[in-house]
Each structure stands twice: as C-alpha cells, then as structure tokens.
Design brief:
By secondary structure, this protein is an alpha/beta fold. It has helices spanning about 5-15, 25-35, 70-75, 85-95, 130-150, 160-170, 200-205, 210-225, 240-255; strands spanning about 55, 60-65, 115-120, 155-160, 185, 190-195. The protein has a six-stranded mixed beta sheet, sandwiched between helices. Strand 5 (about 185) and strand 6 form a beta hairpin. The model is unreliable at about 240-265 (pLDDT under 50).
Length: about 270
C-alpha cells in the first residue's frame, strides 16, 4: 500500500500530465514530437506535460527549469535522456541519492533515495524561455510538491535563475540574490542552495565545471546529515502573502479530500 505522500504525489502528477493551461507550450511539444531529431527518429515521443519523480520522503528537493525537448519531452520523465540528466544522475549517485549514475528512460531502474526531482515548468518552452504566465500556471504544482514534502525535506536545490525565482515566488521569499553556490538557511530549519543549471551552454563553456557541480551535492549531503556546514549568507525569514494563503486553502481541500483542487491560474 502506498504511503499518503506517495499517493498524493501520484495524483498530482496525473493532473500535471492532463494540464492544458498553456496552449503555446502544448503546441510546441507536439511540433517537437513530429520533427524529432535524427538520433531519435524511431522513438515515440512522450509530448505531454512531464511528471516529476523521486522519493516521497525526500530530504533533497531539486528544482530545474523544464523538460528538455529531446530529453524529458521524449522519455516522459524529468531529467531523463539528455545531458543535464546525465550530470544530475551522476552527482546524485556519487552523493548517495541514487542507485545508479545514469538516467535514460522511465524503465531504466533508476531509484532515488531521499531526493525528489521537479521543475519550474512541466512542458518544454521555446528556446528554454517560458513566459511569466506559463511559470505562473505551473507554480501551483511546485507549491503542492513543497507542501507534500514539507515534513521531510531539508534542502532545496534550485538549478538556474528561473528555478530559483519560481521557488522564491511560491514561498514568498523576498530579497535573495541568484548566484552559484549561494546558500540560504531558512528560519524553519530548511536550506536553499543555488546552482547554475547543468545545461550544455554552461558545462561546455566551463561556466559550470564538474567540481563546482559535485561540490553543490556534497554540501547538500552534509547539511542533510547534520554535519557542520560553512554558510556565508544570512538566514531568511519566510512570510506568507495573501496569494500563498489562497493556494494553501486549495491545497488543504486537495489534501483532506484526497482529490486535486488546486487553483486555476490561467
């Protein structure tokens, strides 16, 4: 029998896959399915909003930008089948969050331990640049996931500025600066770590090196294990806005009634 958090995350993902709030993105992912790329000509693309996955009792929540056109949009799993997924899976494996160092398909046997992977946007955006309205539409799903993992998560890892801004917005955190290896301890005992995204643009140019990348995950592991970590940034108090309270009431309906009744922000 599935634990409650696992069941609720599963139901939330069912809602994500059926989401039609962003017509521009839905049109684009279907175009990608038709045009494909040479390497994957014979494969059937997922071409729907991409569900998240991981351990329902995660202590590490990893937030990316969006599925890759020929990665998650093809395989149907976030951070799967593309170079960013390769970097992430290897780092998770080397720091004890995964059972294997690769992420290639939904049935590849990858199991995450104490980690959950999500994204600011659940469909591939054109040129990796989602509109503000599209980020806003997806924010209800990100907020629901943060609520579901509230009891267990200790570290939130934001990959890239869009993911960083999306998390700060749903949690109503103000005044933080984006930057690689920024570490922000929250007043509720959780910690936000910020990293450059492991996109080819960053890894091929040396803006993000492997050592810079693995250091981020080693820091996350140290914090989760309760080891002393040198933190340079000031503690952050989290306050709630009226908007967040409204979403939270919808979330409580979802949680108490065991059905999805998140706000429609279209």
């Amino acid at each position: 029998m599935l634990v409650e958090e696992d069941w609720l995350l599963h139901k939330l993902n069912e809602m994500v896959v059926q989401c039609k709030l962003c017509p521009r993105l839905l049109k684009y992912i279907r175009e990608v399915r038709k045009t494909k790329t040479k390497r994957f000509t014979n494969q059937v693309y997922w071409a729907k909003p991409v569900p998240t996955f991981g351990d329902p009792k995660a202590k590490l929540l990893v937030i990316g930008l969006a599925p890759a056109a020929h990665g998650g949009n093809r395989t149907g799993r976030i951070f799967t089948g593309d170079s960013s997924g390769d970097w992430l899976a290897r780092a998770l494996f080397e720091t004890g969050f995964a059972n294997k160092p690769t992420s290639v398909s939904r049935d590849d046997g990858l199991i995450l331990k104490e980690a959950y992977l999500t994204a600011a946007v659940r469909c591939v955006p054109l040129l990796n640049k989602p509109d503000p309205s599209e980020i806003s539409n997806c924010s209800q799903y990100l907020l629901a996931e943060t609520k579901l993992l509230e009891k267990t998560k200790k570290v939130i890892l934001a990959l890239g500025k869009i993911a960083f801004d999306a998390y700060c917005n749903v949690c109503n955190v103000k005044g933080l600066m984006f930057g690689h290896d920024k570490i922000y301890p929250f007043s509720d005992g959780k910690t936000l770590i910020v990293s450059y995204h492991p996109s080819r643009r960053n890894t091929n140019t040396g803006k993000l090196t492997w050592q810079m990348w693995i250091n981020i995950f080693q820091t996350a592991r140290s914090i989760i294990n309760g080891e002393k970590s040198e933190v340079h940034d000031l503690p952050v108090n989290i306050c709630e806005s009226n908007e967040r309270q409204t979403i939270s009431r919808s979330w409580m309906d979802f949680h108490n009634n065991k059905s999805i009744r998140l706000c429609d922000r279209s």
